[in-house]
Amino acid sequence: MRRTIEEINEKIRDGSVNVVTAEEMTALVQELGVSEAARQVDVVTTGTFGAMCSSGVFFNFGHSDPPIKMQRVWLNDVEAYTGIAAVDAYLGATQLSDTKGMDYGGSHVIEDLLKGEEVWLKAIAYGTDCYPRKRIDTSITLDDMNQAIMVNPRNAYQKYNAATNCSSKTIYTYMGTLLPNNGNVTYSGAGVLSPLSNDPNYETIGVGTRIFLGGAQGYIISEGTQHSPSGGFGTLMVTGNLKKMKREYIRAATFYKYGTTMYVGLGIPIPILNDDIARATAVSDAEIVTGVYDYSVPRRSKPELRKVTYEELKSGMIDLNGKEVKTSSLSSFYMARQVAAELKSWIKSGKFFLSSPVERIPVEGSTKPMKQTQEMPLIKDVMVPVATIKVGFSVYEAAKKIIEDRFNHLPVVDEDKRLVGIVTSWDVSKALALSKDGDLAPIMTRNVITVSPEDPVDLAVRLLEKHNISALPVIDKDRKVLGIVTGEGLSKLISRGLRQ
C-alpha cells in the first residue's frame, strides 16, 4: 500500500480522512495487522507534554520615542538576551528572576503574557546619535508586541533516561527530587505517544513539517540541539507564534532547588504512506526501552543500573537490585493524550493540513562532549586521610586524638565504621572548658554535610560556603569515611591554580 501526502490532504479537504492517535494505532495493528491498518488509516497523531527547558521566545517590542537600542532588557526582572537588533530580545524559559530567584523565571513571564497580563519592561542602553535614549521603563502585554515568536532549540526528546539516587542524601535535579537509597525513580516522555518514537527513521518528520505547538500550528525548523538519533535520543528545533497559543499547553514550572522550566504541548501528525510507517506507529510502551541511571554521581557519564521499558515505568513500580521502587513521571500522559486528540480533531475538521518535509532530519549521529582544555579536579584527587573516633568514647579521648593526629575535625563512626557525626576542636575545647568530660555523643554534630570521592571540587566549595562550615568528610555509598576535605586545603589548591 502506498499513498502520498497530497492524496491525504485531498481527503482532509473532502472530509473522508481517517485519523487515529498513536495509542489507538497500536491497538488497531494488533487487531487487524500492519497491512490492513495501513490501508484503513491515513494519519496517526502523536503528542507529548513535558518539561522542555530549551525553549524561549523572540520578542519585538517596537520602537520607543526617542528610540533606544536596548543593551540589556528585563521583563518582570527576568533578563532577556539583547545581542541582536535594537528592540528585539530572546527570553529563555530557564532564565531566573534577578529578585525572585528560582520562584520565577522566563517561563513564568511567557505564561503571564499568554494569560493576558501586563509585564514590566525595563531596558538600559549606552545611547547613540540615532538611538539617544538610555533607559525605558514601561508595562507591556502580548498584544502590545509586534511579534512574539517561540523558537525552541531542543524539544520533543524521543525518550529520556530514568533517574534514581543511590546516595544517602536527597538530591535535586532536572529529573526532579530524588530520594536517598533508591527511594524513587523518575522518568519523562510520553512513550507510545512520543512523536519521534512513532517515526524513529524520520521518514515523515523533517524540516518544514507542520506540527501542533502550544495549542497552535507550528513548524520543525531543524534537528534539535543534542540530537542523538543513533542512541534513540532524537530532538527537534521548532517554532510557532506565541500569540496564537493556548495557556493550557504552555505552562511554567519550577523544579525545587534546580530551577525554572516550561512545559510544552507538542504533537506531530504521521502520514501513513506505506506499511513500514504504519508498523513504526504501532510501537508500544513495552518496546520503548531506556536506562535507569544513578544521578547521585555528578558526572557526565553516570552508572546505569538496568534497562527498563516505558510499560514498566508507567506501572508505578520497578525492581532495582531486588528492591521494589516507586516510579513517577515528570511529564503528563493525560496532557499528551489531549495534544494527540486535539490534533486529530483539527485534521478531521479540515483545520490542519499535512506538509512535506523540505529536508531530512539526520538519522545517524550522537552528541559529542564539550572539549575541555582543563580538567576539573575531583574530591578523590584532593582529599586527605583523617582519623576517626567511635561513638561512645569520651570528650577527653576525642581531645587526645585531635592533638595526636593534628586535625581540627574528627568524624565519629559506629561499630561498622559508618559516619554518624563529627566533632571539631572547638566543640571539644568548649566542652572541656565547661567541665563536660562525658560521652562524646551530646556534643557531636549529627547532621553531617558530606561529599563522595567522585564529586567535583567546586561542589565542596559551594557546600562549605552554603553551610558556613570548614570541612567535609568524604564517604562511600555505605557511609564509611574515606578521608576529608577542608576549606584551608581547598584554599591552598585554588591559590596554587591561580599562580599557575
How would you describe what is shown here?
The longest helix has 16 residues, at 333-348. The protein is globular. A hairpin with a 5-residue loop joins strand 30 (409-413) and strand 31 (419-424). The chain has 500 residues and is an alpha+beta fold. 40% of the residues are buried. The chain starts with a helix and ends with a helix. The chain has three domains: 5-53 and 151-360, no CATH class; 62-145, no CATH class; 379-498, Roll (CBS-domain). The strands form ten sheets. Strands 3, 4, 7, 12, 18, 19, 20, 21 and 22 form a nine-stranded antiparallel sheet that branches. The chain is built from twelve helices and 33 strands.
Give the structure's gist in a few sentences.
By secondary structure, the chain is of the alpha+beta class. It has 3 domains: 5-53 and 151-360, no CATH class; 62-145, no CATH class; 379-498, CBS-domain, CATH 3.10.580.10. It contains 12 helices and 33 strands.
